[in-house]
Amino acid sequence: MKDEKIVLVENFEDGVSLFTINRESRRNAICSNTAKTLQDEFAKFDMSEQRVAVITGAGVEAFSAGADVDDVPQLWRCIPTIGIKTEKPVISAVSGWCVGGGLVMAMMSDLVVATTDAKFYYPEAKLGLAQGVIAGLAARIPHKVAMEIILLARIVDAERAQNVGLINEVVSPGQHVDRALELARELASMAPLVLKLLKRFVVNGVLPRGPTELFGLASADIDEIAQSEDIKEGFQAYRERRKPIFQGR
């Protein structure tokens, strides 16, 4: 059965938006529709007057169990700075399991708040599959710790995740969203152009990008053209044997 409201979006008047992956019965696993919906909703967020985004998962059992093995998504679509290309701050609020693609989403966010019972896990080496974006973890936490998570598929608890710099704050169970919203509101009170500039400098000038991240960025740009009105006009004009009239959208 098709999920209804697979992503919930709350836009608060203080400039903060809360995005909730709404698949609690599937531990908020990311299916194709989830990834595309997150990308589309964040595109609306980026064009709006909202200033800061918080991402979380429904319930407390899992932020996300990663890619839905019954409907494997194009994961790049919902990864901050790749498919989600906003320069506005993005905060992940993590409770319970944060697995695979969920870990990548948190890793690529600007800030992360997690509960004391949070567990970070990347099992793809055990499963015989990989999308590769996790390689960027080695640019964000100590190399040997990153390789332990990536290659040995070790489960990392919230305390260690904070100690190695994967997350910012650890809070009591059930407090992750409230604390993330507090941080978001603090950011929303600051100069948005400055925040965008600083994030742009970090993302584009400081953090290295691996091959999969570059592929994701290229895929996002190609997809934008594939979904444009201009490509429809181009094919229509070809069929009608006339000169196309492109609008740049």
TrEMBL record:
One of its GO terms (molecular function) is lyase activity. It comes from the Bacteria. Keywords: Lipid metabolism, Lyase. One of its GO terms (biological process) is fatty acid beta-oxidation. It holds the Pfam family ECH_1. Gene3D superfamilies: 2-enoyl-CoA Hydratase, Chain A, domain 1 (3.90.226.10), Lyase 2-enoyl-coa Hydratase, Chain A, domain 2 (1.10.12.10). This is Enoyl-CoA hydratase/carnithine racemase.
